[in-house]
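TA notes. Do not distribute before section.
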Amino acid sequence: MTRPYALAFLNLHRCTAPEAVQVAARAGADFIGLRPWQNVPGSPYQRLIGEPAILRETQAAMRDTGVRVFDVEIIRIDAGFDAHRWDALYEVGAALGAKAVTVAGDDADESRLCDSYARLCEAMAPFGLTADLEFTPWTPVPDARTALRVIERAGAPANAGILPDPLHVARSHTTLQDLRDIPRHLLHYLQICDGEPGLHFTTEQLIHTARCERLLPGEGRIDLRGYLQALPADLPLSCEVVHLERERAIGPADWAAQCLAACRRAVEDAERA
């Protein structure tokens, strides 16, 4: 079985969108993730929204290399959520042929969060995009069971999705059985990295590791074999390894190739077991 591989935005955060396509092609990836919408003030993102020349350059690079865009980031559902705030993100995603948008649940009022998620799915549907809810242990959607409950309470929209990340699985109360219990139609792709598992980390530590200090698959103690075996083997695998200190000594292309090679080894290990 041939599994598609992607390089997530955090693997390519030093690249412009056209550069990201070229780097992914040299590394042997099938897809990339892009972040046209800033995660938090001051964080890196790629200029695409309101930049038609850069958009055209990115599309040209995609045609030349065959690398496609799988996901775009990031929508945060907070207490003041307005689904149409991100219309420009949907439009850019559709123009790039993206399949998914990464979504974070940041509203502690679960009933309101569910209503907002339903409105988001409705707003995104005309653009052919899925709303992939990523559970993260420092947010009101801390684990896989909560993510599934939010989607069910939102009415199970046709373009709903859940995005697993092994770092968040290993640092939350999510079990491998919880991953197996996610309905197949809600799984569009999954992420991979490594790190140290546990439930003892502070919020600051959780965020720092996720955004700045992930490990290559095989370097940490996360049960990646169990993680990969618990999820469908045909799902696209998005390598999301960012390590700001280590990246200072290596260029984006070499880092991408190193990360992707480690991800492939982790998959081969899971398949052999």
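Switch to the second chain here.
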Amino acid sequence: MSVRFDVVSIIGVGLLGGSLGLALKARQLARTVLGVGHRQSSLDSALAVKAIDQAFLDLRPGIAEADLIVICTPAALVPSKLDEIRPLCSSRAVATDVASTKAAICAHAAATWPKPLRFVGSHPMAGSEKFGPEHAQPDLYQGYVTIVTSDKDTDPEAHQTVCELWRAVGARVVELDAETHDRIVAQTSHVPHLLAACLAEVVARAGDVSGIVGNGFRDMTRVAAGRSEIWRDICTTNREAILAGLDTLADELARARRLVAENAGEGLETFFRSAQQARRKVLGE
């Protein structure tokens, strides 16, 4: 399938939405890219970097003619956006999102949208601690995994369209059901972000150490610079899976503390060697 769209509407033209607009335009995948938002300043920035062709504060004219609608808002806002766009969009339109949690969003769509579902959940695992359309990049998705949800009630053509969208902008598509997605991503993304936030707080309490901060701290806490409202919504929409991951992490920290407290040299060496092997396994090295 060679994907190309007539009109694409992007709701929320920040880093992810702006980058998608730039990618669509750079690859000539859409005739017109429309941006919908609630802040004129963000829309103006998206227009300035040419991520979108036209901007709308009003949802109705911004999506009425779209054959693809991409919701790029924080996760907690996606269900309400689905409610807003459902009566306004064309029956032929395909809708997707870019939120980092999927189960609550996909369950809401399944309960409220007509079947077969023309909404298909997506999660492009690309991004940056920076935000706003001024930081958008046309190659942001190149080489990164995008998870596309699978559901028995999904329209097969809509599902294929969303998969092809992400492949066309350079992503590697992985298909998962929403619950499995949330469980895995809690371990690989959400819990690490919380750990980075905790580490940043702990070190900040040590006083002014800015002149002696090493790369280890920078590498481990980079994601803590991300937008607080995005991560707030991730935690509230993937609560159970994150709690399970935090419990497992707490067990590992307790084990590490015990080894240090016991001055267990051999045990510590085994601990770090196991961690090296675990990292290689996770990264497929």
